[in-house]
Amino acid sequence: MNDDFARLLSLKDTMTPWALRAVATLGVPDLLADGELGAGELARRTGVVPDALCRVLRLLTARGVFTEPKPGVFGPTALSRLLESGGRPISMGPWLDLDGAVGRGDRACVHILEALRTGRPVYERVYGRPVWEDLAADPALTASFDTAMAARAAALAPAVAAGYDWSTARHVLDAGGGTGTVLAEVLRTHPRLRGTLLDRAPAVTAARAAWGDTAEGRRCAFTSGSFFDALPMGADVILLVNVIHDWPDEHAAAVLRRCAEALPPDGRVLIAEHLRDGAAGPLLELDLLMLLVYGGRERDLDDFRALVSVAGLELTGVTETRAGISLLSCQLPQLPFQGIVGNHHQS
Ligand SMILES: C[S@@+](CC[C@H](N)C(=O)[O-])C[C@H]1O[C@@H](n2cnc3c(N)ncnc32)[C@H](O)[C@@H]1O
């Protein structure tokens, strides 16, 4: 077999992604967290057929996810540790759980050809309603979505808190802030700041229960609502973390327009997203996922510049943080013009 053939075989692999999701859904990484177990015992504890599980674990062992120190006995690796409930820097378990919201989106992706033919998400065709309506109809799905987002947000939050000059800010509104992981970190590290968390009711309720009674929570208002409606007034920074990429241009511009309308003259909209410029594999994959599940897209700097200008804003600063996510600072047009667009790399 030549190298190209072997490479293509590995690229066309159907089973590794699903095997990985299957063991994450069954909680196998947590069961192996304290050491090795036999496939029979793992199957007993997860309620599956030993032979079938053993074959799945052997494939994943070949891929470096587990070890097989003795025939039929499996152990953890650094990769399976990332799938454990407390995996660091981010637990990937909620992102691979086939019973959760993200896994439900992944399962719709077999219809990729339809997305190519229509340019539209396939989620609605598979589940009968668009993704946000579908999640809203099932509290367990909503909670699993919020848990996955919070796991990612925990890895980004320190970079957002450190990557922007918050010294002159007074009040930050985190629009579509989920359960508030990023906002809580920003408020914790900047004790003069007040905050408002805005999202769908279940996320806001969960946020208030989780950290409403902390020092940060007591400086925060918890507001359920839609960022397509008028936003609460009073914030001089409006934060959008991984929100814009969920939406096609028309909807993304509408969210930004609501932000512009709620902003005081000296205020800022701070968009925290990965930029598609020179993007490596994971972001390109996410770009397709955005198309197939949400109808959104990943954008480069020029895309963002054009998008914010449609919404009546100017892109005036870009900071790439140590977490790889970029902070795009936008403001209302100033007369005379005071903004400078540039790349400032955080040390
Ligand atoms: C990709 S998640 C990002 C969450 C959070 N900013 C983070 O970084 O973890 C997008 C968020 O937008 C929220 N969302 C979706 N539609 C919304 C709407 N119409 N109004 C307010 N929030 C909405 C979702 O509930 C979700 O929390």
TrEMBL record:
<dbReference type="Pfam" id="PF08100">
    <property type="entry name" value="Dimerisation"/>
</dbReference>
<dbReference type="InterPro" id="IPR001077">
    <property type="entry name" value="COMT_C"/>
</dbReference>
<dbReference type="InterPro" id="IPR012967">
    <property type="entry name" value="COMT_dimerisation"/>
</dbReference>
<dbReference type="Pfam" id="PF00891">
    <property type="entry name" value="Methyltransf_2"/>
</dbReference>
<feature type="domain" description="O-methyltransferase dimerisation">
    <location>
        <begin position="15"/>
        <end position="83"/>
    </location>
</feature>
<dbReference type="GO" id="GO:0032259">
    <property type="term" value="P:methylation"/>
</dbReference>
<dbReference type="InterPro" id="IPR029063">
    <property type="entry name" value="SAM-dependent_MTases_sf"/>
</dbReference>
<dbReference type="GO" id="GO:0008168">
    <property type="term" value="F:methyltransferase activity"/>
</dbReference>
<keyword id="KW-0949">S-adenosyl-L-methionine</keyword>
<dbReference type="InterPro" id="IPR036388">
    <property type="entry name" value="WH-like_DNA-bd_sf"/>
</dbReference>
<protein>
    <submittedName>
        <fullName>Methyltransferase</fullName>
    </submittedName>
</protein>
<feature type="domain" description="O-methyltransferase C-terminal">
    <location>
        <begin position="112"/>
        <end position="313"/>
    </location>
</feature>
<dbReference type="InterPro" id="IPR036390">
    <property type="entry name" value="WH_DNA-bd_sf"/>
</dbReference>
<keyword id="KW-0808">Transferase</keyword>
<dbReference type="InterPro" id="IPR016461">
    <property type="entry name" value="COMT-like"/>
</dbReference>
<keyword id="KW-0489">Methyltransferase</keyword>
